[in-house]
Amino acid sequence: MQCAFGVFCLNKDEVKLISKHHHLKRKEILHSANDKFKNLYAIQYGALKTYETDAAGNEVIHGLYLKNEVYGYEAIHRGHHLFSVEALSETLVCEISYHAFLELLRSKPHLLERILYLMSQQLAFDAYLKLSTAQQRLGAFLLDLSARLFITDHKNTTELNFLLPVTYQDIGRYLGLATETVSRILSQFKKNKIIAINNKHIHLLQIDKLKGIAKGF
Amino acid sequence: MQCAFGVFCLNKDEVKLISKHHHLKRKEILHSANDKFKNLYAIQYGALKTYETDAAGNEVIHGLYLKNEVYGYEAIHRGHHLFSVEALSETLVCEISYHAFLELLRSKPHLLERILYLMSQQLAFDAYLKLSTAQQRLGAFLLDLSARLFITDHKNTTELNFLLPVTYQDIGRYLGLATETVSRILSQFKKNKIIAINNKHIHLLQIDKLKGIAKGF
DNA sequence: CGGCGGCTTGAAAGGCATCAACATAAGTGG
DNA sequence: CCACTTATGTTGATGCCTTTCAAGCCGCCG
Known about the structure:
Distance between the termini of chain A: 45 Å
Structural class of chain A: alpha+beta
Oligomer: homodimer
Radius of gyration of chain A: 18 Å
Helix content of chain A: 25-40%
Strand content of chain A: 15-25%
Number of strands of chain A: 11
Shape of chain A: globular
């Protein structure tokens, strides 16, 4: 069985890593904030969001995890999870005991580099959240999605065509924008023929222009 | 010699890890963006910032690294550094070859958990950058600094008293605020007796109120 | 002591949030 | 499978927070 760890699961005797599978429906919760950290989760298909609710009762999304990505590393140092995690669509995740994960890593040192690679990747992921304008962040967000979906899912996706795995509301909650702003700016991109949208289907028509927008031109 | 890796450097035969020391003066550069990734860096004293310059020529700070922290993980997956790195004050860093680092980790599996712990910590660090208002981000920033400096440096620091390692300009560039906004809000905190400032010396007078502000009350 | 970088304070402009009302899509139950 | 209900997306008007521009002050280093 293939999974987000790649090398991990291709090897027969390593499949025992996976202690359990979770089938989640949209809006179903994988675990809550403050739950004890015991497992990592590899997403087979679907997507997850981590979120918390602030003092005003507003949801703030801290991370998005897509097909073939791994969620859970950020809880290692606390021993418990910081956020709640919810499925954004029909989602299948493999549960991997952190304990078994450590064991395996010790017994197969060649996997170490792979794991450091994956964690390093996550450290750099949301760099674009620092961009200042709504246009920049949304542009960078689309490019990020496109790349992440393309890397791991060549079947239904190209670098230019993909299905939005999140609602505008969630995009807003992730990027720190109002839903209305997301809608307005996406409409504007559409009007300028930079992207095409119908329903959740996104087509990046002028990827260079989009990159320019993300960079602040 | 003690360093950010803790367990690493306390053990004599592991000191060979450190290939070199760098003495940096304020504004001196450790390496530039796109330089090849070869080493991790443990900060003995001082502080570093990672930054890039956007299309408009404005500097954007992506990370702040303080005394006893380790910088470099985020470049592992690319093979080259994403950002330039500059010293914020007189700074001493230990250079650790990533190659030697991997070797050591393989030969001393008990260090694995420690490293995963440290990397996990960094994944959670800048969660507060998502906060929406300037007050919230600045409040959270002060609390974060206070905690990070306190953990690793009980000598000149308490949880409530510390020296600002950065200029207001850099705070702004890190939090995504104009320098003037940083100044204004800090003045406001001061007027409300939530903090005291003289020069770079910060005193958190009402840490609970500050936590409240960070949470959005 | 002079000069420069860093900080402060005011006034004006702009981007985004908020509120509101509506349109459309999706999901549910009969 | 249709009718209803709820969730999601659209569009406009208003206000606020933060940026920007400008000018002056302060503290530090040579």
